[in-house]
Design a protein that fits this description.
By secondary structure, the protein is an alpha+beta fold. 32% of the residues lie in helices and 38% in strands. It has a single domain, classed as Alpha-Beta Plaits (2-Layer Sandwich). Strands 2-3-1-4 form a four-stranded antiparallel beta sheet, with helices on one face. Strand 2 and strand 3 form a beta hairpin. The longest helix is centred in the first third of the chain and has 13 residues.
Length: 105
Amino acid sequence: MADAVLALTTEANEALALQLAETLLERRLAACIALKPVQSLYRWQGQIERSSEVQLLIKTHPGCLAALEQAVRELHSYTTPQWLHWGAEASDAYAAWLNACCAIS
């Protein structure tokens, strides 16, 4: 089993990304969230779209993943938010910090 989970989503702008990140941290569903502006090109409703977005790289404990996904779907401004996740190995110290930060179910 992985020591940590990394999850990836994007938001429409910095204000929405900050609001989402702060809420997830307040709910203790994540230990750390890195925000990064990105240019996205994607197919949506039969068209190729281009937009400026803010990418959120969310670091969490595996036990929080289901609740984290549910919160992202509830709070996100998009109808179909990007939701990708994968397990990661962490150093003992980082894994302990992640445990302490997240409300593990």
